[in-house]
Amino acid sequence: MKQRLEKLQGLQQEGKDPFDVYKVNVTHHAEEVKENFETLEEKEVTVAGRILSKRGQGKVVFSDVYDKTGKIQLFIKIDNVGEEKLAEYKSLNIGDLVAATGTVFKTKTGEISVKVSSFQLTCKSLRPLPEKFHGLKDPDLRYRHREVDIIMNPEVKDTFIKRTAIMRYIREFLDNKGFMECETPILSPIAGGAAARPFVTHHNALDIDMYLRIATELYLKRLIVAGFEKVYDMGKNFRNEGIDIRHNPEFTMIELYQAYADYNDMMEITENLVAYVCEKVLGTTKVTYQGTEIDFTPPWRRITMVDAVNEFAGVNFNEISNDEEAQKIAKEKNLEFKKDLKFVTKGDVLNALFEEFAEEHMIQPTFIYDYPVEISPLTKKKRGNEEFTERFEGFIFGREICNAYSELNDPVVQRDRFVQQAKERELGDDEAYVIDEDFMHALEIGMPPTGGLGIGIDRLVMFLTDSYSIRDVILFPTMKPAQNNK
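RE: above sequence
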């Protein structure tokens, strides 16, 4: 860094300060030059990017410069630029940014290149990049300095290009079906719409605590009440919980709601949306994730939670008649709960058995449906069986990717459910739902039958880019401050 700073000071003393460059008239990017070689051969172009290699000596230098599309080789020869400029290019460092003008040609080895007639240093890199052979491998450094990670690892750049495309095609799919994208508040006086621990902040002017949103559900349902029959919001949610390969406190979700629809319609939307995005981004509905082929082709498998628990835990809940019998099974299976076992319900045990014994077996895309009413406070009861609700979650590779309901629109029942959730909080579940009176006001005005769906965008991107950790698909994941930042 000291040597690079000295070089910068020397350039500034010579009146060649690279930080005095304000604009470059770039005519082409690297891939454009390569893809259009036949029409560009012997034509003049101006390219710009970061120097990632230099080789050659004497009167010729070959240099690889990388821009947003990839690599282009520069050919700098003394006959074309002169002795002084050749020496200047040789003095540049790996990591410096340059703009170069010249004619397009092919070298003797067949590489499409730019025969440079002039160039300009546009930014001096004062901090050396990692040594290219070993690259940047340390996960902590990669996530903390994502800009260097992207420079050094082209596959990382490709992941985030795909992420942007995935989000674009999700919007395209929904827009084509008549959904309207809406923006809902990130700051709210109530942490509602999900069972999660919120981040708390304080609004000075109003002198009230507020919460970063944990879900967009309640606001979007209010828009259904307003008469917007198909709405969605894709954006950040925040949950003050742990960090692991599947969880980041700040994450991206899409929630959508459709009036006059139910959870069966949401299953169709989910499988068709994912298949559409796969086809658009990857050209196929089959992907390989961590060595396993995943087939997103609709229709996906559908199985009730009761049947899944029967299959993988060996417990038939159709034969269990009350909470006490379920509690005995919970003891036998060594299940753990946030509340005392005597308060645990049959539905609590069913869900715990599914999570403990069945969830990991859901490798191919699978909808688990008909969840217990106790863990689904915003969901309509199952037609014909009030112990269950019309709710499903989608699983891939043993991981939940989405959650959907036939939405509860009875305000009397909804208030009763919220009261029950308040009791759950008293029993120790600090992630139980809280009542939102503004939402209740909307329900009392009247919400039509509605289907709702939430999809974790980060997890979907993981599957479509074969990324092991959620941190690999979030540009700047949440990190503990580095020691030298204290």
